[in-house]
């Protein structure tokens, strides 16, 4: 590490090089509003109706019958959203429980704190006590009731540690709904829901998802083709692939795609039977995640951005080999730096790809002139969505 860091807004630090780099694209005030928005969840929590099982209107009615406030998106038929309330003022308690970052970010949104997410119960916390849940950076995220004694927490391995009463932001507990269990919807941000539409998969086509797990965009592709495309879902992580199979099983999609655990940077070598035969490829690679919300605190460096960009280009090279002439590549990320987005599209064009225009209502254009009117971007402080990038490319005939 080393080097000077700038704290752009509370909790969000980037190294000086990355700061200077981003200032080529944003004003100081713009960066500040962007990072401030990253600290909050989007005002709308989006889910996607599983149209293989229910039509979106029926899902809305069903949720409203249970008094859940839910609305249809203005443009995407299967996209529904629930308003997120807050920020709420958190009353202070005399005792505290420290949560790890991931758990703190869920509690911040109203989830209970589970035992695996506990870093420390302050001395003397007893079951039934009112406590504040604190993030590792010291920020208070909720008031709740301890469900276990402090000295018990090391001995039990799961279950609720603190039941949340008041959190900074709140929304219904989506993953505990019967409709979720029944696979009637999947929670997915609005920009992520546009990706499968841009890919526009058709029945009968051969589609490859190079970074499939946990299967958000994959399950959408299956929905849009009613399972009638030949879909290959690859991911490097065995654990995430298992999780994906569980999720898609719940959505009723088992058997509608083929999975293999693969490092897809070598797919042309490992699956030579796919080379030159694929109609559509989706690359949704690991990235610096700078658009992911809500995030209470984070540190990012220019070196990380550069190495991610290099890593992402390896998938693009392989996609070029897999696609048949006339085939389509869709590339998406949940991050901000052009090095991981527009610049990688320029790299793809140097291989022979051609970036084609996409149009998504209310989205912004590219951050560099060449792609101003062709690619789509979403910004936390502009669209109030996660930060997101989507581009569509064609391998010419
Ligand atoms: N498309 C998914 C999210 C993908 S996140 C969805 O919509 O739900 C990025 C994924 O890339 C991670 O699951 C990660 O395991 C995977 N990944 C990272 N490096 C990889 C590699 N070399 N080959 C294949 N997958 C990789």
Describe this structure in words.
The protein is α/β, with parallel strands linked by helices and 397 residues long. The chain is 27% helix and 26% strand. It has helices at 16-22, 28-39, 56-65, 101-107, 178-181, 190-199, 216-224, 238-250, 267-270, 302-322, 342-351, and strands at residues 5-9, 12-15, 44-49, 71-72, 79-83, 95-99, 113-114, 118-121, 130-134, 140-146, 160-167, 185-187, 206-209, 230-235, 258-261, 278-283, 298-300, 323-333, 354-356, 376-378, 388-394. The strands form 4 sheets. Strands 13, 14, 15, 16, 18, 19, 20 and 21 form an 8-stranded mixed β-sheet that branches. Strand 14, helix 8 (238-250) and strand 15 (258-261) form a beta-alpha-beta unit. Helix 6 (190-199) packs across helix 7 (216-224) and helix 10 runs parallel beside helix 11. The termini are far apart. The structure holds S-adenosyl-L-homocysteine. The site of S-adenosyl-L-homocysteine (SAH) has 18 residues, from helix 7 and strand 14.
Secondary structure elements and pairings:
Elements: E1 5-9, E2 12-15, H1 16-22, H2 28-39, E3 44-49, H3 56-65, E4 71-72, E5 79-83, E6 95-99, H4 101-107, E7 113-114, E8 118-121, E9 130-134, E10 140-146, E11 160-167, H5 178-181, E12 185-187, H6 190-199, E13 206-209, H7 216-224, E14 230-235, H8 238-250, E15 258-261, H9 267-270, E16 278-283, E17 298-300, H10 302-322, E18 323-333, H11 342-351, E19 354-356, E20 376-378, E21 388-394
Parallel strand pairs: 2-17, 6-9, 13-14, 13-16, 14-15, 16-18
Antiparallel strand pairs: 1-2, 3-5, 3-12, 4-5, 6-8, 7-11, 9-10, 10-11, 18-21, 19-21, 20-21
S-adenosyl-L-homocysteine binds next to helix 7 and strand 14.
